[in-house]
């Protein structure tokens, strides 16, 4: 228990001569400095709360209002129209020191109330302005006069230098769509998937629901929308994520990958040193709210930043009926896994963040540590990869007291989790097929070498490659992607490495050793670990993953054809799926609703009447295909905008279903709608273009990320536009389904992309292919 003795500030021994007290000055110093850091964080948080609370005004504007009111009073004017005199009548007696003090006190109180009223008015005006979404539906380059006035007003009321959360109080609430509109849109979305008899049956079910039970459920939902900030988000987090009892590995968690063409250093510890330091720099900016509010690209329109609050110091806690998300205000260490052992690594020393070189030094200590794992420790992480109920029972029975609870607390309360992998993973310059094993490793690893419950796990491979695995319940992928891309950018373009590939800087010789965690795992718990590992391993072995870069053209050429790149990709996926399966399927494309307070996602049903008509026509002849393609593209963009502006289908129907369960009433319509399988689930990974210089450093592009298949007989497809000349695709499916295959679907996607471009640009010559050979790694930037 050496690590426990190191953790206390003093020890005492009772002897016949009295009490022998031993003080640890180093421990007391660390406690003092930790307290100072905590208080600094609280003061900064208080200051930012004040600044955010009065936004779009500023705290200094209060002084301006006070001075203005006092100035008008001294000119023998009464700007309050008698209110100041009324205030003076009710002032306590200690204000009667002099008449002038009484006048000043009344004026200050009136000025403060006027200032608060102005802030409230400005905020309400901004909220109404941000509720205007007609601009999204106007044709590109054709802005109406109403929208021009709206843009000017948004500029006026948006304030200056906003903090990360400055717009939270001005964002509108998510509106509840009319029940008849949602039912109508749902019927339209399933039409290409049903024959006439099935569609007629669904039409009758829909009409019955809309005219009877639907109205009652909708009334309760509108009541919730009046009371709650967001009528979807809390139920979505609880019922879609936290109440799921199946493994979150593969089924819920997702992954993100490193640079495609370069590895900045081949030294595992050095890569960890720079990137871990960058993560804590990001967390510092997050805590100080110095990150710029996320906006719709090319506009002033802010997006909700509420999900950013739980990026760090967050863990999913298993329960028998439902899990919970636990967030701690601060954590000064990370939990590290290597070769079956768990370590606690402090990231601060003497009141400061460790330098990249010092972190590399500490990580190397862990890599060189020869100590064996404790009994049952090596595969302990499999509990987080298996079914949730066995993990919840094991946690309660074996980890609720003693050394096991203390060690588990260290993992769960860590800023995030780090896995030091003994395998090597490569990128494109080596062998393009290695991207597949690289992605599989990040998605599930060995099923016990990741802590899938942590908000995210950073994985470092032996050859310097890295990646991450993210837990999905606390936030959506774009939030974690922003932090990840900040880390990649800071690692290479700001911190850098020396000529030998090590981190820059010096090492403080007084750094404490990384603390190895101890465990006392009984045989019964080991059996449970083995059971969870068997479940997780079967799931991992069944996953088929294919990752490829499409370099023949990118969004630049598509835009020149006056087509939305996202609509182009979605129609290519529809064409590829039809060629692969010979039929259409219900297609899920993730859209965001972060235009609204606490918004998360909405579904765009990409398989439409227009897209299916185009695919059928294109498969037979091309005379009408171009016109049908344009119609399908415009329809897709319209659906995407509808989803972004709160007029989607699926979240509304989901919440109506939850209300029906609370009321204990059955709806055949809702039951059938929510049981429809998503055989093609798709998502676009956003790229923070301001963090990377793709023109001058084209090799520094990320591989993007992906997720597991939603349906056992379907595909999961994630894609990312990398600059103007490349797309990256991540495809997943299951080996157990004989009709699907990630590689064969990838080939269909490539063919569909080429065919669609040929349709749009029939006179083009051979497609441009990238021929620049990029190095696998650079040692010095």
From TrEMBL:
Subcellular location: Mitochondrion outer membrane
Listed SUPFAM superfamilies: CoA-dependent acyltransferases
Pathway: Lipid metabolism; fatty acid beta-oxidation
TM region positions: 50-74, 104-126
Gene3D superfamilies: 6.10.250.1760, Chloramphenicol acetyltransferase-like domain, Choline/Carnitine o-acyltransferase, domain 2
GO cellular component, one term: mitochondrial outer membrane
Domain Carnitine O-palmitoyltransferase N-terminal: 1-46
Keyword match Repeat: no
GO molecular function, one term: carnitine O-palmitoyltransferase activity
Active site residues of this protein: 472 (proton acceptor)
Protein topology in the membrane: Multi-pass membrane protein
Protein's UniProt keywords contain Mitochondrion: yes
PROSITE patterns membership: ACYLTRANSF_C_2
Reactions performed catalytically: (R)-carnitine + hexadecanoyl-CoA = O-hexadecanoyl-(R)-carnitine + CoA
InterPro entries xref list: Carn_acyl_trans (IPR000542), CAT-like_dom_sf (IPR023213), Cho/carn_acyl_trans (IPR039551), Cho/carn_acyl_trans_2 (IPR042231), CPT_N (IPR032476)
Domain of life: Eukaryota
Record PANTHER family: CARNITINE O-ACYLTRANSFERASE (PTHR22589), CARNITINE O-PALMITOYLTRANSFERASE (PTHR22589:SF114)
Record-given protein name: carnitine O-palmitoyltransferase
Species lineage: Eukaryota, Metazoa, Chordata, Craniata, Vertebrata
